[in-house]
Specification:
The protein is mainly beta. It is built from two helices and 27 strands. Keywords: Glycoprotein, Hydrolase, Repeat, Signal.
């Protein structure tokens, strides 16, 4: 996702536990022994199939979904579509693609002005059939609860790819939306994939397995948030206990004497337990201060068997904490996982003034706007891709954008290994232009199963908001610009108007 952290990794403890559990869970009762009859043979229940992460068609290759939420569909503005690219050993991701929108066969509802289908995406095997499913948010869908309440739907995975769909959730409540801030994971360790969102006052969990009409096994609420709006959400196993944990960045809006609005930022974690997520606990950052942030992802950067948290903070000022010089221009904070959970005593913060990181920390760069974690170089340490979408490259290239990659190591992200890519880098197709915002969204994914993740980098505002996506290849020393390719709406056979292609990826 997937959830967020459903980058294509080994199955890990949670999936292994689920598989073993499914192999031994139930047996038929043997008939009583009789002198004239041999003992009855016990029959084991068939094992439930286990889906590989982000593999919609079950062929063993990671697939990618990315959105164009502002695109025209059937003449409707901002109706939105999702592009699915299926992985392969030898073909490029664009060679086998699929377009999904609300006028596609089998997709519920219809394309309407402003729905923004695909604004948020996640993945997970909700029906436990061995194929990963795609969960799609339409943030401003009109529902029976009211206008622009949003909904969540699932498109089912299968041998031939994604097809068929069902509504999972409609927005309800005064400020709730049904189409954003959701993740998947096995939050109670029972082997089934659950769905969680923060559109209720706390974390609402829809327990798997789901029926094919989108009905969960049950719905429960877990711990009211002490602060207001969610800014980002991710999931992963940060304590190695086989149960998925949920982490979210949140902000608290309030009125101040000096102005009408201000906010403070926080990060919270819901630990997975046998009863589902526990109440949220705050995660602190540098010097024990509240960990303010926007984007986040989870992965094992230091290769110790526990997944780690990386939070990107783009806001340089926060009214509720002492200001940090390292927050200038944006920063990322690395919080390692451990058997006791996230270790806030061992955090590392990095910005563009940190040792080895290309560029210079300049106010407004938004270093950390997007984050993705996966193994780029095949050394089994998971690495980082970091979006810097407001990076300026010259007087007439303001907000052209950049992407920084950084290798993982035993002590976390290694700034001295950082590299930068822009549209001005040699071998990168196109050229940097003002307001492109290259790097607004990034995704690392191993679509050819060679053990190294490719980099997908978006500039949703390229070509007057048409949007473009670049694919960069990995090497043993990191991402290279050589043989990189770019595509836009025209390449997908879609209308080249305002689309914001590449606005988000499956998390």
């Amino acid at each position: 996702m997937t959830s967020r952290s459903s980058t294509f990794r080994t199955l890990g403890l949670a999936a292994a536990t689920a598989l073993v559990g499914s192999l031994t869970a139930s047996t038929a009762i043997a008939a009583p022994e009789r002198p004239d009859r041999a003992p009855a043979v016990q029959k084991k229940a068939a094992a439930k199939p286990v889906a590989l992460p982000d593999d919609f068609n079950g062929d063993g290759y990671q697939d990618i979904a990315l959105s164009a939420p502002m695109a025209y569909i059937s003449g409707e503005r901002r109706a939105g579509y999702v592009t699915v690219m299926y992985g392969s050993k030898s073909k490029t991701p664009t060679a086998n693609k699929q377009i999904l929108h609300q006028d596609s066969p089998g997709i519920p509802d219809k394309a309407e002005n402003g729905d923004q289908y695909g604004r948020d995406l996640a993945t997970g095997d909700l029906d436990h059939d061995g194929y990963t499913d795609l969960i799609v948010g339409a943030r401003y869908e009109d529902t029976a609860a009211g206008k622009e309440r949003g909904n969540l739907s699932v498109v089912w995975g299968g041998k031939s790819g994604l097809s068929g769909s069902a509504i999972l959730r409609d927005g309800s409540g005064a400020h709730a939306s049904g189409g954003d801030f959701f993740v998947t994971g096995d939050f109670d360790g029972d082997g089934d994939t659950d769905l969680a969102d923060t559109n209720s006052p706390g974390l609402r969990v829809f327990a798997g397995p789901f029926s094919r009409d989108g009905v969960p096994t049950g719905v429960t609420d877990h711990g009211k948030l002490p602060w207001g709006d969610t800014k980002g959400i991710s999931s992963g196993d940060v304590d190695g206990d086989g149960k998925t944990d949920v982490v979210a960045t949140v902000r608290d809006w309030y009125t101040t004497r000096s102005g009408p609005w201000s906010y403070s930022g926080h990060t919270v974690v819901w630990k997975g337990t046998a009863q589902g997520p526990a109440d949220p606990v705050e995660v602190t950052g540098v010097a024990g201060q509240p960990l303010s942030g926007d984007a986040l992802d989870i992965g094992d950067i230091n290769r110790d068997g526990f997944e780690d948290l990386v939070v990107g903070r783009t806001e340089e000022y926060d009214d509720n904490i002492d200001e940090l010089a390292i927050a200038k221009g944006g920063m990322i904070t690395y919080v390692p996982g451990s058997a006791k959970g996230l270790d806030s005593a061992s955090v590392t913060a990095v910005n563009q003034d940190s040792h080895g990181v290309p560029g210079e920390a300049e106010s407004g760069d938004r270093f950390g706007q997007s984050i993705s974690i996966a193994d780029i170089d095949g050394d089994e340490y998971e690495d980082l891709a970091i979006g810097v979408p407001v990076e300026s490259l010259g007087v007439r290239q303001g907000s052209a954008g950049a992407v920084v990659t950084m290798r993982g190591g035993s002590n976390g992200p290694m700034g001295e290994t950082a590299r930068v890519l822009t549209q001005n880098t040699a071998d990168v197709p196109g050229s940097a232009e003002e307001y492109d915002q290259f790097g607004l969204a990034v995704k690392l994914a191993d679509t050819n199963a060679d053990g190294r993740a490719e980099l997908f980098a978006s500039a949703p505002r390229e070509n007057k908001y048409e949007g473009s996506v670049w694919i960069f290849q990995p090497t043993a020393t990191g991402i290279t610009a050589k043989k990189s390719v770019v595509f836009g709406p025209k390449s997908l056979g879609q209308r080249p108007d305002i689309s914001e292609l590449g606005f988000t990826y499956n998390n």
